[in-house]
Amino acid sequence: MKIDGQERRLKIALVGTRGIPASYGGYETLMEELAPRLVEMGFEVTVYCRSHYVDRGLETHLGANLVVLPTIRTKYLDTPVHTCLSALHALGRRLRGKGFDAALVVNSANAVFVPILRLAATPTALNVDGIEKRRAKWGPLGRAVYAISERLACVVPNVLITDAAVIHDHYLHRYGAESTVITYGVDPRPPRRREWLEKLDLEPGDYFLYVSRFEPENNPHRVTQGYRGVGGAQPLAMVGGAPYANEFIESFRRDADPRVLFPGAIYGEGYRELLEGARAYIHATEVGGTHPALVEAMGYGCCPVVHDTPENRETAGSGALYFDVTTPDSLAEALEWVRSHPEEARLRGQEAAERARSVYSWERVSELYADLLRHLAGEGPDQA
């Protein structure tokens, strides 16, 4: 942006996640990958973070500024309280003459706080991810909040972002709301060591991998149940966890097959180790759009074994093996095929990797977000 003939870096706020460095899920991974790329493109980026995920003393990460704020650590208040405080902080900056040129907010539940950013004269894009009201983890109150938020998401932001064509069509057909589709990406980087493989006693190419938050709609309980019907000695590494879900997690961990490993949530180098070495990746999620973990597994050449939904088919394409997560035998049959057809499974993994390279790329995703944010800030071609 030019002011009095001088170039000025656009100030961008990234709001609604737990923050970076990423140590949780898809939204956090998006911020981890997007923020430094936007910085490289010349933006001044500020990421709002939660104090129980990010050290209050950490002021920058990968070139992005961090604002660490508190919240209330309960299932229903963690996200909204923090996003409200973040929006108010951004408003305060505007009142001091240091406002943002544009903001990206994630999670449809945060739609109610977008007007605070608009009050701060900050054009805002809202990424709604999937159809949150369908998630099994929410009770009646949570589903009602998300149903209201879904409607608000159609009217309060300047731009509505969806991450899959299926989600785009939902908003268009149900509410008449147009949206910009921007998926998640993958940037496969070979790991430098095999620390986690050694720690878990896993042999490259000789184990199955599941990665997700351990929540009902992601079906970790059904995956462990279905794995009982798989022969052989190959382990299944169940990577993940979830806050506020201890009872649910214990319900399927205590009676799991002895071949099933539960190492907890793993990020960074260890995560890449597990992706590169897995024979197949199991994706059992029922709700959402483009799932980051599925895209990442495809990028690393894992054979995708995927629960059959329109969203998952849109992501994984024709090369994946599809199963019905509500039928344990269906998953067992798919994994038996992978176990007994290693070369064919490897070729399916190669096909998945090629699809990830051509369709899902963090460079492409970042360029799309950069163009959108420039447009919001008045730099787009429509504003020329």
Show the helix and strand layout.
Layout: E1 2-3, E2 6-7, E3 11-15, H1 26-40, E4 44-50, E5 60-61, E6 64-69, H2 78-95, E7 102-106, H3 114-119, E8 124-127, H4 140-152, E9 159-162, H5 165-175, E10 180-181, H6 195-200, E11 208-211, H7 220-227, E12 236-239, H8 246-253, E13 260-264, H9 268-277, E14 280-283, H10 292-299, E15 303-307, H11 310-316, E16 321-323, H12 328-340, H13 342-359, H14 362-376
Parallel strand pairs: 3-4, 3-7, 4-6, 7-8, 8-9, 9-10, 11-12, 11-14, 12-13, 14-15, 15-16
Antiparallel strand pairs: 1-2, 5-6
Helix pairs in contact: 1-14, 7-8, 7-12, 10-13
Question: Can you give keywords for this protein?
Answer:
14 helices; eight-stranded mixed sheet; disordered C terminus; 17% strand; 384 residues; six-stranded parallel sheet
Principal-axes geometry comes out as globular
Overall pLDDT score: 91
How large, in whole angstroms, is the Cα Rg? 21 Å
Helix content bin = 40-55%
* Strand composition percent: 15-25%
State the separation between the terminal residues, measured CA to CA: 11 Å
Query: How many H/I helical runs?
Result: 14
Low-confidence stretches: 2-6, 380-384
H/E element order: EEEHEEEHEHEHEHEHEHEHEHEHEHEHHH
The biggest beta sheet is recorded as: 8 strands, mixed
Q: Structural class, from helix and strand content?
A: alpha/beta
Number of strands: 16
Output the strand order for the largest sheet. Answer: 5-6-4-3-7-8-9-10
